[in-house]
Specification:
This protein is α+β, with helices and mostly antiparallel strands and 154 residues long. It has 2 domains: 47 residues; 76 residues, PH-domain like (Roll), CATH 2.30.29. Helix content is 41%, strand content 20%. A hairpin with a 3-residue loop joins strand 2 and strand 3. Helix 1 packs antiparallel against helix 2.
Amino acid sequence: MSTPASPSGLPGLPVTFRPTLTRIVLMSLGTALLAVLTAVSFLLDTATAADRASFIGTGLLVFAFLGLLSRPKVVATREGVTVVNLTTKRQLAWAQIVRVTLRPGDAWVHLDLADGTSLAAMGIQPGIAKEQAVANARALRALVEEHGTGHSAT
């Protein structure tokens, strides 16, 4: 979370939830791999310019893919919630969110919506930092209860 809690104990708005540790690991791995592939491309004595370009290009593609994997976040503002997943971004009004769930074994939080559908919120995922994800899910649940019309369940 990025802002201090309000007097009611809720996080202050706007607040961004994202899997920070996962993001750090992915981007560090991408940077290291890009650096290694770039270094290898220049260390090969028999490498042509095309060979070097393919090594560096591969490193850039892997870095971009890992950057895509680190993109998810959930941003709560006074107006509502923006869910950014791998390739999609969806803005929701508070009233559209009925329930916030994170059950044991879930890969990420799910938002049950007023239209009867469910939306994955990949920005809160218990992968590496389970306690942080549970705390973020509870905070989002509390914000939905405060600003929306929904009810929450675990």
